[in-house]
Amino acid sequence: MKIYNTLTGKKEDFVPIQENQVNMYVCGPTVYNLLHVGNMRCYVVFDTVRRYLEYKGYKVTMVQNFTDVDDKIIQRSLEENISASDVADKYIKEAFIDADALKICRADHYPRVTGEMDGIITMISQLIKAGYAYVSDGHVFFDAHKSEKYGKLSKKNIDNLLAGARVVVNDQKRSPVDFVLWKPNKPGEPYWESPWGNGRPGWHIECSVMAKKYLDHVDIHGGGEDLIFPHHENEIAQSEALQAEPFAKYWMHNGPLTSGHKKMSKSLGNFFTLREVAEKFPHEVIRFFLLSGHYRMPMEYSEALLESSQKGLERINNCWALLIALGTLDEITEEEKAWLKEAKNFKTNFDARMDNDFNTADAVAIVFELVKFANIRINGNVVSRPFTNKLRELLEQLCGLLGLEIGLTLGRSISVKRSANFGFHTDIKTENTMPFTHEIDGEIHGIVTSRESAKEDFDTSDIEAKIARRQEARKNKDWATADKIRDDLAAQGIVLEDTPTGVRWTQK
Ligand code: AMP
Ligand code: ZN
């Protein structure tokens, strides 16, 4: 398995520090607002990474923090006339509702800054003692010049940073590149007592402290790419000032979800909350959309793209419902056994894409290939129940690895009745969304639109027209034309079989 490591700028073989155990730390949100879909990209990406690692047999311990004290939270508390901790409580609760709706597996720990003050004060004291930090007028700053490899993650160097820095903005700092570890509170702001006076911590120190407390070591440290500098650079500087081993082995960063081609952010105002988007699209569609691009690439938010994700997911769901509905033969045929053997390649290919730095965009493409493969095999053929079951299980497995529960209704519930022989009919029952349940024998309830969707994968009209022309030629004893049509179709991968009831065609 390979992971792109921002630290080295390369895809590297993934070898966790401790065999079979993966410790992950992902920077969480600052909670002063409902989360927007950009934040959710980060959640969905690292949830998918975690699911895949678990599928590969690793035990994963995951930590994600909540920044629950910060200028914006304080500002919000003044606006809403409630305490900063009430603001944080409220939006943490909302964040869980959103994460659950997107099927994000819960992390093992969700530490909050306000619950970790002792550890933060201890670490700042250690940094001062070790000569990496200094006190200045109620503040504590990290002395970036003391950090030998400062800039190694973001590929920035101190001289360039200094050249680009504005003329001294903060006269408490020795250098513009130094960053704050502790700062005094303004009147009316929440504060904690410390050896340097009342105040609260800077942003970066929290993650160094929490990662160390909840994880013995960090295999994967994640977050959005906007955090590379200064947040993650500073985390490295602080943590590695006090330990010889690297703070984290692999640094993974998701690209931005953009809106108007600018990073979606609360401060720019170009954001859509998950709640807003979920009024128009089901959560599974939003998750599917967020996984349809490569996680490191920027991705533009658009309703048109969400609509096409919705169509894509409907196609997957339709195929799944067909697999549930079809399969009248009890015994698997030799031909189907061969097809199942072929279908194993989808699993191998899916894994290969995911092993290659979690390329969900390509993995999704494999799922569509499987859908196409299944639709072609089941469309117009009498198939066996063991065959449809196996294909359905494979489809469920691949989608499950992406955190997509197929079989959930997309806005409507339809009952599918299996008829005695080949085929089925659909019957729209209700317009309400309801979770899928199914019974194999008898009536089956689930999402399906129509049988036509199976044909979407394959334009059969051309084939059928050719078959009709071939029949005509045969009737006229024009064997040369008939054979030519058969050969042309064979070149397209279409095999014809003349049966007593007519011509049957299959795709090779
Ligand atoms: P914040 O609350 O802004 O600190 O964001 C919490 C997490 O979401 C961080 O890992 C961010 O990098 C990530 N994030 C924020 N905005 C976006 C975005 N537009 N696209 C992708 N990830 C984002
Ligand atoms: Zn962080």
Which stretches are low in confidence, meaning pLDDT under 50 for 5 or more residues running?
A: 409-457
Q: How is the main sheet built?
A: 4 strands, parallel
Helix tally equals: 16
Category from helices, strands and their pairing: alpha/beta
Q: How many distinct beta strands?
A: 18
Strand order of the largest sheet: 4-3-9-10
Measured as a percent range, the helix fraction is: 40-55%
Listed once per kind, the bound small molecules are: adenosine monophosphate, zinc ion
Mean pLDDT, nearest integer? 88
Rg (CA only):
29 Å
Termini gap = 32 Å
Overview features:
508 residues; alpha/beta; 4-stranded parallel beta sheet; 4-stranded antiparallel beta sheet; 44% helix; elongated; binds adenosine monophosphate; binds zinc ion
